[in-house]
Each structure stands twice: as C-alpha cells, then as structure tokens.
Write a structure and sequence with these properties.
Blueprint: E1 11-15, E2 21-24, E3 30-39, E4 46-55, E5 59-60, E6 67-75, E7 79-83, E8 88-91, E9 97-101, E10 106-110, E11 115-123, E12 127-134, E13 139-142, E14 148-153, E15 158-162, E16 166-170, E17 175-179, E18 184-189, E19 193-200
Antiparallel strand pairs: 1-17, 2-3, 3-4, 4-11, 5-10, 6-9, 6-11, 7-8, 7-10, 12-19, 13-18, 14-17, 14-19, 15-16, 15-18
Length: about 200
C-alpha cells in the first residue's frame, strides 16, 4: 500500500548475470548476451530486449525490421557506426550512446581493440524507450505512462530506492525489471547504472 493509500501494482524481478544467454553472431564478428526479452503473448517475437554485445571486428549489425535501437559504449576504446542513410556516429567515451533505426543497414568499426556495448531494441509500434546513465546518488523520475523500468548495475553493487518500496541492493552485472512501476522519484546509489524507461506507444 502506498503512502497515499493506493495499492501498488508494481512487480519487480531481478535477473542474475549467471542466467544470461550468450549467442555468437552469424558473421563471427562478436557475441550477444541477452539479459532480458519481453515477448508478445502467444508469440516468440519480442517487443523489447535488453542485451550486451562484445564486438571484436568490423562488420554489419543484424537488421531488426520495425525496431528502434539504443547502443551504449560500456567498455573499450571506441566504436564507429555508419548507416546506409549516410548518418555516422562516433562513440569514444564510456557511456556515450546513440539511437538509430534497427531496420537500416549499419556498419560498425572498432577502435584499437574489442569493445562491449549495451543495447536496447524496441518494437517502435509498441514501445518508446528512454535511456539514462544514472550516477551515484542521482535521481530519476518515473511518470504515469511508464510501463517498465529496467536498471542494470554496470560497475559494482548498487542500492535502488523506489517510491513506497524502500531500498534494495542490485548486484554488479545483474538486471532489475519493474513492471507497472510506482510513479515518482527513484534513485540509485553506490555506483553507475544504466536505466531504461519504456513507454507504450
């Protein structure tokens, strides 16, 4: 029960890194680790997915028709993206990120060795994702139309404070997924986290 007397509908699940699924790329240029995929009822098609990729060589990204993507550099010396529409992007520093359509050909080039990136892929007809890099003690706002919040502890264990639910610890490398999250100010302390807010379209 919330402080206002309204029953919370929030459901929180933590996914441990030991259970993440690893999948090599068809082109041999890297490997994807799937942290979580939200699948449409009665279907094998995901509506949104959180993953990481280890990119070891230059090559094209897989195409995802009807999806939008957000990519965050979390380790390595940099990554260049060149899209078939002529747009280009340089991710040079840790936590640099870019949004781009998943259904246009995108070629990635690594800078001086392999990189690791964090990925959000969402069906643009169903969900609009917003990505935040939350530093130690930072707060972020969950608004009423938010359907999901995900929090990934990048560097170390973090403490999450959610409205009406107190504090909980999230171990380094683990992912928290909150469905129907409580509205209000959330915070993450003791480290850096990648937060994704997913809003129905």
């Amino acid at each position: 029960m919330s402080e206002q007397g309204i029953q919370s509908l929030m459901h929180i699940t933590t996914y441990a890194k030991a259970g993440f699924q690893r999948m090599p790329w068809v082109n041999g240029g890297g490997e994807t680790t799937e942290l979580y995929a939200h699948v449409a009822p009665g279907s094998s098609r995901f509506l949104w997915r959180i993953s990481m990729a280890d990119v070891t060589a230059a090559g094209p990204f897989s195409l995802f028709a009807g999806y939008d993507r957000i990519l965050v550099l979390i380790d390595g010396r940099g990554l260049s993206l060149a899209c078939e529409d002529g747009s280009q992007c340089e991710l040079q520093g840790r936590y640099d990120f870019v949004e781009f359509p998943g259904d246009i050909t995108t070629f990635a080039t690594v800078h001086d060795g392999p990189v690791r990136d964090f990925n959000v892929i969402a069906d643009r007809s169903q969900f609009k994702p917003t990505l935040l890099i939350v530093n130690n003690g930072d707060r972020f706002q969950v608004v009423p139309d938010t359907k999901f919040v995900t929090i990934y502890a990048v560097e170390c264990d973090v403490v999450i404070d959610a409205p009406n639910h107190g504090s909980r610890r999230l171990s380094s490398g683990d992912l928290l997924v909150a469905e129907d999250p409580d509205v209000g100010d959330w915070s993450v302390s003791d480290g850096v986290s990648i937060v994704v807010l997913l809003h129905p379209v």
